[in-house]
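new request in #modeling-help
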Amino acid sequence: MQSVRVCALVFGAGALLLAQLGYTPGDVEEGEQLFIENCAICHGPEGDAVPGVELARGKFRHASSDEELREIITKGIPGTAMPPGNFHEHQVGTLVAYLHSMSTSVGAGAPVLGDAARGKIIFEGKGECLKCHRVNEKGSYVGPDLTDIGITRRSGQLERSVLEPDAEVLPQNRFFRVVSKGGAVVTGRLLNLDTFTIQLMDSTERLRSFLKSDLKEYSFVDKSPMTSYRGRLSQSEVSDVIAYLVTLKGAGR
Amino acid sequence: MKACIFLLSLTVKFAFGQVSFERILGADKEPQNWLTYSGTNLSQRYSRLNQITAENVKDLQLEWIYQASSLEKFEATALVVDGILYTVQSPNDIIALDAATGRTFWTYSYNPSPKARPCCGHINRGLAILGNTLFMGTVDAHLVAVDAKNGHLLWDTAVAKAESGYALTHAPLVVKDKVIVGTAGGEFGIRGFLAAYNVHTAKEVWRFYTVPGPGEPGRETWGGDSWKTGGASIWVTGSYDPELNLTYWGTGNPGPDWNGDPRPGDNLYSDSVVALDVDTGKLKWYYQFSPHDEFDHDSVQVPVLADLEWPDRAGQGKMRKVMLWANRNGVFYVLERSTGQFLSGTPFVQVNWVNRFDEKGRPIRVPGKIPTAEGTEIYPGSEGATNWYSPSYSPRTGLFYVSAWDAYASIFFRIPVEYTEGRVYAGGWPKSHVPDGRAAENLRKDNEGYGVVRAIDPLTGKRRWDFKMNDVTDAGILTTASDLLFSGGREGYFFALDARNGKLLWKATLGGVVASGPMSYSVNGRQYISVAAGHSLFSFALKK
């Protein structure tokens, strides 16, 4: 699902450019994953955490062409903190594709951030976010753990998730729904699924296991279990919460 | 008189457990034993034991577990001779167990050279036996003979050079007084071959190169000097037809795997089945499944031999000696096995590289479906439609059973490549849509496909039934005379199906990937079903 939406947006905006460069929507998606796993820890999800470098705006200190970008990704920049990357040639290409897409893909156009300290108070209080989410070992196990959400998601993406939770539910965060033969419905986070059984954590944080043969039906829930905060929080409160989420960069960081 | 009794008892003692070649040829007449990798020389992996039935299979229980001391994949099929079970553990140990209790009699350990560089793990798939001698190929490309009574080494001979990438991973095949092995190493630019050794003297009797050299027919199918590094490895055990005196072996991919540019031509006899005269090693016929392969479509599947009433041109059924072959390339083939004549080729999974076959059975390719620098999506994906997993043929149901991966693709990339001895010689890579282990179930995509036990009617090539799994499968298949089918998969389930309709009858959670072929034997009239999963060997029987 994520890929479909990302693709749609990419094609809506910068697809032509990317296609001309020989990159596919799949390349962008793969590059984004690689970027989050390998680059965002220093560059930040917006690509702007290193002074003087704004990856999302195509502003590089040492590269003016794709070839130079590839060179830097592969060999690093001696004398700086930029290390050589251990990537296949194809992977380097997908990273370059993602860098090109950053200005047009989902999450582009960073929102105005509010006050992170106020955001934390709202997050833990009025917003009741910990009823489902977890941050640094505090909160519920049911929803996605947000401890490092500031690394893995861009502020624009976070704002959209708060205001339009159904717009994009990452595949790994979809809820799963099972219905017993007697009609009892259980939803929760899918932990495992095989030919004969299903394991999930239900909405009361219980670890549950089901035999498929005991069920009437089972499937993913494509909509988010979260309801929109539009109207529940003011725009400035949302900005504060986003500002707080952006600061979440992993336990102990 | 006393001497006579002594002699008699000695004779009986020697005869017990002694596996003559006549016994191997007639292995189907002693179903309490499992004398070769695939059960019999026809390789049908079909057991005539019928104590365990569709009605009582629900009462199967675990009798014993043998836990290997290695954490390597356990891909072996055991042998059973008169109550003794012989199996292997990585890298190259042989273990003799009591087949009824799983207790160990002895262990033989071979220490392979650290220079061994098998592509895909320190794997061994099993043993062969003749007389009182067990034979094992090693990952450093030696062949060893070990006394089945006490596990002592009888002889050890170097078959090929380990540091160049040669390795022996499959169970040897014994025919007459010869033990036949072939070399793995298709990712290292080796030159593949099969070789027969005298079981007593360890002397090489013949050698057949799966890549022809100068002056040999087929040399012209390799441009330049590419034959020297052509691959066409052997890593799964072949079969034998005693009436035709032919032994059949499937061969692996040509090297480099994913870039055929350095090796213009059809690249015989890669991705083929070769039929060799067992006395001389001379090629009687061959059939190449994937000429000039660039998808790593090893044709190392077990050649399953059967006699079928095959319709002639007038539509009349005529008994034919055939070979049934579900290939890694996604096509199910029926070949006539005295001549190699192509009888039929029918895709058994989603396939996008071949359109049809000409009269001689040469595939007519789909244009443009080759690896490229940008990547090309090919169905089936990099692990193939099936692979080395043992299929089964039941003469009772007349169906062929295969563990398949359907509806999945990989993206194949081509890159320039140069050969360096002992280094990987691949020329690209496949990007699989199927991640290892599939831990993140909710990240699965449609093009990851699924694993399935598929029943195929050999006469039509059409599927008769499917048993679908959530994950893919590397498990072999066993069928029995009570119309049971045993198999498993990556999820760690081991299960029994009704071979007639695919209905699930029983299952057990073994907690590790089933990447071996199940087999059956009996001790004191009690039937056992044995299979390796994870790092252990499991044996099941009915509750007493």
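bot summary: The CA atoms of residues 519 and 530 of chain B lie 5 Å apart.
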